[in-house]
Amino acid sequence: MPNDRLSATFSALADPTRRAILARLALGETTVGELAKPFKISGPAVSKHLRVLEQAGLIVRGREAQWRPCRIVPDPLKEVDGWLGHYRRFWDASLDRLGDYLQQLQGKDKRRGRKKRKGESRRD
Amino acid sequence: MPNDRLSATFSALADPTRRAILARLALGETTVGELAKPFKISGPAVSKHLRVLEQAGLIVRGREAQWRPCRIVPDPLKEVDGWLGHYRRFWDASLDRLGDYLQQLQGKDKRRGRKKRKGESRRD
C-alpha cells in the first residue's frame, strides 16, 4: 500500500474486481456475501480485495459480527476527480464552450430585461 | 502491467514521481534530461518511470536518438474521467443543479421566442 493517499487510491483502483465491487456498492451498501456472488473467486480472495479498498479509504465495513455491510466512501474518488481537473482541458473543450454559452444566455437575459423595461428594439 | 487498460492506467498513476512527470508534461513536451532534473533519483530510475507511463499509453516518446521529447497522451486520463462519471453524483450535486439551470434558461428562451411571435402575455 503506497504512503500517499492518491497513490493508495490509484493502486486500489488498478484491479477490475475491486472496481466491480465499487460499482456494486455505488447502488447501495450490502454484505460481503452478496458482494462475492457475481465473482468466480473464493471468499477469502473477495475479503482480500475488500481489505485493499478499506485500507485505501474507498469503503467502510460495519462492525457487527453477522451483518457487516460494506459501504462506498466517495472522498478518495473526489480527490482523483480534483487531480484529473488539471488535465481535463486536454479533452474537455466543451467545458469552455459551456461557460461561454452560459455567459451568452445570461447576457441575453439581462439585455432582454433592459429592453423590456425601456422598449428598445431587439439586437441579438 | 495489468491486462486491461483502465487497470494499467490506475497502476501507472499510483506513484507520485510518475504523476509529477505527467504534471510537467502537461506544460509541454520536453526531454528526458529536463524531466529528470527536479527528481533526486537516478537517470535509469526516471527512464523506468517513463517506460511505465509509455506502456500505459499516458505518454509517447520521440524516436530521435539525441532529442527524444516526451509528450502527454490524454486518452487514458479521459477514460478515467469517464469511469469517475459513474461516481460523480456522490459529491457533485452541483452538476444536477447546473443541468436544471440550463433547462430553465433554455425553456425561458423558447417561451420568449413564442411569445414574441404570437404576442402572448408573459407567464414566467
Give a description of the structure:
2 copies of one chain form a homodimer. Chain A is mostly helical. Helix content of chain A is 59%, strand content 5%. The first copy, chain A, has 6 helices and 2 strands. In chain A, strands 1-2 form a two-stranded antiparallel ribbon. In chain A, helix 1 packs antiparallel against helix 4 and helix 1 crosses helix 5. The longest helix of chain A has 26 residues. The C terminus of chain A is likely disordered.
Outline the fold blueprint.
Two copies of one chain form a homodimer.
Chain A: H1 5-13, H2 16-25, H3 32-36, H4 43-55, E1 59-61, E2 70-72, H5 75-84, H6 93-118
Antiparallel strand pairs in A: 1-2
Oligomer: homodimer
In spatial order, strands of the major sheet of chain A run 1-2
Distance between the termini of chain A: 58 Å
Question: Which structural category fits the helices and strands of chain A?
Answer: mainly alpha
Approximate strand percentage of chain A: under 5%
Low-pLDDT stretches of chain A are: 120-124
Largest sheet of chain A: 2 strands, antiparallel
Q: Name the shape of chain A in a single word.
A: elongated
The chain pair forming the largest interface, with residue counts per chain, is: A-B, 37 and 37 residues
How many β-strand stretches of chain A? 2
User: What letter string, H or E per element, gives the SSE order of chain A?
Assistant: HHHHEEHH
Per DSSP, the total helix count of chain A is 6
**Helix content estimate of chain A:** 55-70%
Rg of chain A over CA atoms, rounded to whole Å, is 24 Å
| Average of per-residue pLDDT values of chain A | 83
